[in-house]
Amino acid sequence: MSSLSVLPPECLLQPFPVPQRLMLGPGPSNVPARIAAAGAQPMLGHLHTETIEIMNQIKSGIQYAFQTRNRVTLAVSGPGHAAMECAIFNSLEPGESILIAVNGIWGERAAEIAERIGAKVNTVVTSAGGYFTNEEIEQALDKYRPVVFFFTHGESSTGVVHPIDGIGDLCHKYKCLFLVDSVAALGGTPIFMDEQGIDIMYTGSQKVLNAPPGTAPISFSERACQKIFNRRTKPISYFLDLNWLANYWGCDDKPVRVYHHTGPVSSFYGLRESLAILAETGLENSWKRHKEVAEYFHKGLEEMGLKLFVQDKKARLPTVTTIVAPPGYDWREITGYIMKTYNIEISGGLGPSAGMVLRVGLMGCNSSKANVDKVLEALAEALKHCHKSRV
């Protein structure tokens, strides 16, 4: 008789066959063999000399991708949500005011996170698929006088890429920090952190960078650091405290890096390789390819008789396209048919676009005209075979 009351689970005694899929949803995207191979390299200690060198190279790669010379540039151990919390937890103290531009789910999430730490949250809201003028932003800044202004560069729930020029100057005019979420856009459309006056910016590894989820590049300007490192209170999160993270990543000029947490070393390998690919490709070439492929996709959709959710062509996010859900169809049946028949993932809406759109991601290595042709074929067949009501 075994003395164990819980026996080894049968499901773990057999290998799990992970299917190969074309990941054309809003993320994660497919991981190229080169990045997957990098992640499978031998394990190192999180403070070994070689690991520190890899982290230094990651910092340089992020500075290139963000177009910044910020000293405090690093990768949070966690997904984009962790970077969002890191940015908000460090830049705001309880009772301080944040203004959040809401044009999709990520502004809504930022508002909830800020509320949880006791910040005074004000929002300026536009309809799904829309964006704000600089005049509207200035009016809100003048009205609320926030310490931080939160803004989503690429709103993946609605498919909008928001214009940025001039907003940083407005924020500095009203003496607030400019915080930008570029998770869905970074690497796929132009952004210049220093030139555009962005004080805090972050992204995720699993979108255009094509690395596995779990690391989130982030950078802080000197203006942001001056506020953060002179707080009256400690940040609510120990794990995301920038004082500790800056030291762990060698951003504080101290001679020794003190143990803070065990970083995801294998994920660092993958992130470094993804940034190396971006550097080899060139930012401008990456931006150009994503734009051209997105426009090719949009033309194909319109030729099929499908409508794009974002009406203003200039505001269409090149990395995530939102398609008006075809009238009479159940969007779940369409996405399910494409997954089952073609092994391709596309998704429905999220947050304010839920039930209204189909979302197709063309990010990094997945941004190609060949993939566009595949998803157009799959959509055409789905519309033939899925049930359409007469209503």
Automatic annotation (TrEMBL):
Per UniProt, which keywords does this protein have? Answer: Aminotransferase, Pyridoxal phosphate, Transferase
EC number(s) reported in the record: 2.6.1.44, 2.6.1.51
Catalytic reactions on record: glyoxylate + L-alanine = glycine + pyruvate; L-serine + pyruvate = 3-hydroxypyruvate + L-alanine
| Cofactor(s) required for function per UniProt | pyridoxal 5'-phosphate
Q: Name one GO biological process term.
A: glycine biosynthetic process, by transamination of glyoxylate
* N6-(pyridoxal phosphate)lysine modifications at: K207
Start and end residues of each Aminotransferase class V domain: 43-374
Specify whether Disulfide bond is a keyword of the entry: no
Is DNA-binding one of the keywords UniProt gives this record?
no
Q: What does the annotation say about its assembly with partners?
A: Homodimer.
State the name under which the record lists this protein. Answer: Alanine--glyoxylate aminotransferase
Native source species: Sinocyclocheilus grahami (Dianchi golden-line fish)
Q: What is the lineage of its organism?
A: Eukaryota, Metazoa, Chordata, Craniata, Vertebrata
